[in-house]
Amino acid sequence: MPHDTLEGAFAAWCDDLGWSREQLAKHLGVRASALAALAAEFMPRAKSGPGWGRSTPGPPEPDSFGIGRLADRHGADLARLAEVVGAA
Question: In this structure, what are the phi and psi dihedrals at residue 37, rounded to the nearest 5 degrees?
């Protein structure tokens, strides 16, 4: 499983919750084809600092380093995408 793309985060999320890709797509508010395209995107990275580039624990702020652009590009729910990516 590629760790540099969102595919890794999606696989981990689905494995942890016992979800299918269809359930994840529904959770994110996208069609299966959009989920596949989103999964091929590179994992957003913090520009500096350890981890998410923040000192506080938990998922990143929704648009702190590109999550918003990815959500917009693929029509995904921003908060839910940030939650999935933050759990990876």
Answer: -65, -40
pLDDT grade for 22, boundaries at 50, 70 and 90: very high
| Global confidence as pTM | 0.75
Q: What is the pLDDT of residue 57?
A: 54
d(CA 33, CA 77): 15
**φ, ψ of residue 64 in degrees (nearest 5):** -70, -25
And the tokens for 51? 């981890």
Under 8 Å between Cβ of 36 and 62: no
* Cα distances (Å, whole numbers) of residue 20 to 5, 26, 53, 72, 75: 18, 10, 31, 23, 19
